What does this fold into?
Amino acid sequence: MECTFCQIVSGKTPTHFLFQNDKVVVFKDINPHAPVHLLVVPKKHIRSINDLNDDEREIVSEMIMTAKQMAKKMAVHKSGYRLFFNVERGGGQIIFHLHLHLIGGW
Ligand code: 5GP
Ligand code: ZN
It folds into this structure.
């Protein structure tokens, strides 16, 4: 079966995008751990941080800059927020398509 986030990125699983551009999409986590819990997801399928190649630096910086903009859009930038990657099973990763969590709004 195809990767859950590839299905979301391609539109096969209808999902509301709070933002998208040529490199990333942003949507709400289905099981939020905070009042604001967004996922910043590259359109390209990359399994995890471990699998990033040198030529994918631009994707990572796009993810972080997008998260920064989304924090402002969700009005949590001043109160503060967390950005994190879970890497592989021991790091808590359950969806093996790279994503950056943005949580805040407590
Ligand atoms: P991980 O533990 O892999 O870093 O986080 C994956 C996150 O994706 C989890 O917080 C989970 O709630 C979220 N998630 C899993 N499947 C879906 C889905 O189909 N739609 C959305 N919006 N979020 C999902
Ligand atoms: Zn994928």
Q: What stands out?
A: The pocket of zinc ion (ligand 2) is lined by residues 3, 5-6, 45, 97 (CB under 6 Å).
